[in-house]
Amino acid sequence: MTIDFKGKDILNGFQFSNQELNVIMETASYYEMRVKRGEIIKDLEGLVVATLFFEPSTRTRLSFEAAINRLGARVASMAEPANSSIAKGESLEDTILTVDGYCDCIVMRHPVSGSAARAAEVAVHPVINGGDGTSQHPTQALLDIYTIRKEKGHIGGQTITFLGDLKYGRTVHSLGYLMQQFNNKMIFVSPESLRMPEEITAELKSRGADIEETDDIKYALSQSDIVYVTRVQRERFPSVEEYEKCKGSYILNNDLLKYAKPGITIMHPLPRVDEIATELDTYEGSAYFRQASNGMYLRMALLGLVTGRHNICYSI
Ligand code: CP
Fold first, then answer.
1. Is the confidence at residue 185, as pLDDT, over 70?
2. Is 3 helix (H, G, I), strand (E, B) or coil?
3. Of 38, 131, 162, 288, which alpha carbon lies 20 to 30 A from 270's?
4. Are 230 and 166 in contact (CB under 8 A)?
5. Burial group, residue 173, by CB count within 10 angstroms (0-12, 13-18, 19+)
6. Domains and CATH numbers, the chain
7. pLDDT beyond 80 at 302
8. Could you tell me what percent of the chain has a pLDDT over 90?
9. Which helix (H) or strand (E) holds 151?
């Protein structure tokens, strides 16, 4: 089957068909195999990819830049907006129109929800959303399902608990759609003030999602094949006082793990603060650093597909 991604923007977690998701997973697996074989890959040779990060990032920016380098393309990077003409008041649209003339693909992170879609409106080349405000982080959700496939052997038919800041955590907003798409049950556990936004829960339910909300962490862990923990997003709170009320309200540790379903997989998009005790790092089901590594292969796949340089047909 041929699915043509060439020129497509990657903007949210609900834009993909199951067939498209399978192609992305197979492509990530293909690049992982080639990297692990030590191949010098030249699929994107001659191309330039711009990485525009208007917000801090370690994993998303560096895994994209590593992916670009491993594919044989070159990076034009803006990691410090304070040193760009944004500081002089240039608009996002003018910045994108300018950068679009220098490159073949734009990867962007921005603090304002909807900014990736605004960039895609004006850019000729594909725009990949590396996280926009509290809205979406689709490449994280894609690497999350790639991780679930590797850790569990399959993506669907499981129970996943989302634990933490479900209000401001854009990763769970994107992943929720993909979990619904693969018929997983979702359990939401959060402080009352950090519940999943009602419009997202309602949209997921309208798509047929099986969702349970509870404040009983032990019960949720006992039911779950996967627990996906998120950090309380300090930078999104309206005030320090509001953040102080919520921080540290849940910490997954060895004591809580005793209540979990045997074999539970622990995931986290990282960075973590204190919501997963470091004592859990040696638990074999702790997948969060493997999850971070998977990000590079998944992002290689997206770059190969949206530039049209990777066009192998898969039987899916
Ligand atoms: N998971 C994630 O988006 O991490 P960074 O903020 O470090 O990119």
1. yes
2. coil
3. 38
4. yes
5. buried
6. 18-136+295-306 (3.40.50.1370), 138-292 (3.40.50.1370)
7. yes
8. 85
9. helix 138-152
